[in-house]
Amino acid sequence: MSKQFVCAVCSILLGAALAGAAEVTPVVYVDFVGTLSGTSYKLGPREIDTTGSFAAHNGTEVVFAGLGVLTNADGSNQESFEFDASAFNRNATEFTGTAFVVEAVFTRTDAGGAMAPIMDLGGQCFIRFHDGLSAGTWNGSTEVANNNIEPSPAVGQTHHYAIVYDGAQTIDYYKDGVRIFQSDNGSPKEITRWISWGNIRHASVNGGRQLIGEYESVAFSTFTGTFDPDKDFILPEGPVSRALAYAPTPADEVTDVLRDTILSWMPGEFAVAHDVYLGTSWDDVNDADRSDPRGVLVSRAQAGTTYDPAELFEFGQTYYWRIDEVNAAPDNTIFKGSVWSFTAEPLAYPIAGIIATSNGASQAGSGPENTVNGSGLNDLDQHSTNSSHMWQAGVPTEGPLWIQYEFDRVYQLHESLVWNHNTQFEPLLGFGVKDVTVEYSLDGIDWTALGDVELARATGATTYTYNTIVDLGGVAAKYVRLLVNSAFGGTGQFGLSEVRFTFIPAHARQPEPAAGAVEVDVDATLTWRAGREAVSHEVYLGTDPASLTPAATVSQASFVPDLVFGNVYYWKVDADDGDVVWNGDLWSFTTAEYATIDDIESYTDDIDAGQAVFQTWIDGWTNNTGSLVGYAQSPFAEKTTVHGGRQAMPLEYDNTKGPFYSEASRTWATPQDWAGHDARTLRLYFYGAETNAADTLYVAVEDSTGAVAVVTHPNPEALTVAAWQAWTIPYSELAGVNMARVKTMYVGVGNRNAPTAGGSGLIFLDDIGFGTPLAYHVPADVTGPGDLVQGVPNDGDWPAAETPDLAIDNNVATKFLHFKGAGEPSGIRVTPAVGPTVVAALTLTTANDTPGRDPITFELYGSNEGIDGPYTLIAAGEVADFAAEAEWPRFTMNATPITFENNVAYTSYQLLFPDIRGPVGGSVNSMQIAEIELIGVVAP
Question: Rounded to two decimals, what is the model's pTM?
Answer without folding.
Answer: 0.82
